[in-house]
Design a protein that fits this description.
Blueprint (H helix, E strand, L loop, with lengths): L2 H32 L10 H8 L4 H13 L4 H8 L5 H7 L8 H10 L2 H18 L1 H9 L2 E6 L5 E6 L2 H18 L6 E7 L4 E7 L10 H13 L13 H10 L7
Antiparallel strand pairs: 1-2, 3-4
Helix pairs in contact: 1-3, 2-3, 5-7
Length: about 260
C-alpha cells in the first residue's frame, strides 16, 4: 500500500469520526432534553455519560455544552455534520460563536489548524473579558503578591495583578536593575510584549553573588568599635547603667584589710 493511499484513508477515517461525533452530540442533546437520567438518581447528563460511557466529567460537560450550542449555530452544525470541521475546532469556536460572527468563525476554522483556532478563540475571549467592567473590578479585587524562599535558598515571587499594575511593576523592576547594576556588562535578550504582540529588545544584567565584607569595611568597623571603648577609669561613669554593671563584674574586686 503506497503512502498516498495511507494518507487518503486516514483523512477519510477522520471525516467519518467527525460525522460520528456530530451524531453523538445530537443524541446527547436529545438525551439531556428528555432527562431520563433522573430516574437513576444522577444529578446531570454529564454524570450519566461518566457512568455509562466512560467519559470523565470535564469531557462529558463539554459534550453537553456543545450539544446544546449546535442547534443555535446552523452553519457550524452543517459543517460539522458533513465532516468538514473536527470536534476540536467545533469545541473551540462554539465558546464565542453567535449569529453575528458564525460565518467568519467557520471560515477561520476551515483555513487554520486546530491549534491556531484555539489560540484565536482564546484571544477573542480575553478581549471580551476586558471589555466588561466587572471583569476589571474582579481582577483588581483578586490581586495578590507573595514571595517565599525554596529549599535551595532561591527567592520566588508569585502574584496576580491587573494589566496596568503589572506593567508598572515590570517598569519599576527594570529601572531598579538598571540603577543597581549600572556600569556592569549586560547581555541582550528578546522579550514578547503582550500588548503590542511584538518582540521587544531588553537587556539583562547578571545578578552578582553576595560577597563577604571587604577588608577596608572590616578595618573601619574595628576602628569604630575601638573608639567606642573607654580607655581611662574616669570615662566609666559616663557609660549606661547596664554596661557599668557588666563591666564592674568583670573587674577584680579590692578587699579592705
Amino acid at each position: 500500500m503506497c503512502l498516498q493511499a495511507i494518507q487518503s484513508e486516514i483523512v477519510s477515517l477522520c471525516a467519518d469520526i467527525h460525522r460520528a461525533e456530530y451524531r453523538l452530540l445530537e443524541l446527547i442533546e436529545q438525551l439531556d432534553t428528555s432527562r431520563p437520567w433522573r430516574h437513576e438518581h444522577m444529578p446531570s447528563c454529564a454524570h450519566w455519560l461518566n457512568a455509562h460511557c466512560g467519559l470523565d466529567l470535564v469531557t462529558a460537560r463539554e459534550k453537553v455544552r456543545i450539544a446544546h450550542a449546535l442547534p443555535k449555530l446552523p452553519l457550524i452544525r452543517d459543517a460539522f455534520r458533513l465532516g468538514e470541521l473536527s470536534y476540536s475546532k467545533v469545541r473551540a469556536i462554539t465558546r464565542v460563536a453567535d449569529w453575528s460572527n458564525e460565518a467568519e468563525l467557520v471560515a477561520v476554522a476551515r483555513a487554520n489548524t486546530a491549534a491556531h483556532v484555539v489560540r484565536i478563540v482564546k484571544e477573542m475571549r480575553q478581549v471580551e473579558r476586558l471589555r466588561e467592567s466587572h471583569a476589571a473590578f474582579a481582577a483588581y479585587r483578586h490581586r495578590t503578591f507573595a514571595s517565599h524562599t525554596d529549599e535551595v535558598g532561591t527567592l520566588i515571587f508569585e502574584g496576580r495583578l491587573p494589566a496596568e499594575q503589572g506593567e508598572l511593576l515590570l517598569q519599576a523592576l527594570d529601572r531598579a536593575m538598571g540603577w543597581l547594576f549600572r556600569g556592569q556588562p549586560h547581555r541582550e535578550r528578546m522579550r514578547y510584549d503582550v500588548a503590542s504582540k511584538t518582540f521587544l529588545k531588553t537587556f539583562v544584567v547578571p545578578m552578582p553573588l553576595r560577597s563577604w565584607p571587604s577588608s577596608s569595611w572590616r578595618s573601619r568597623h574595628k576602628q569604630r568599635k575601638d573608639s567606642a571603648r573607654p580607655t581611662d577609669i574616669n570615662s566609666w561613669c559616663t557609660l549606661p547603667r547596664k554596661r557599668c554593671r557588666s563591666t564592674a563584674r568583670s573587674r577584680p574586686t579590692m578587699r579592705r584589710r
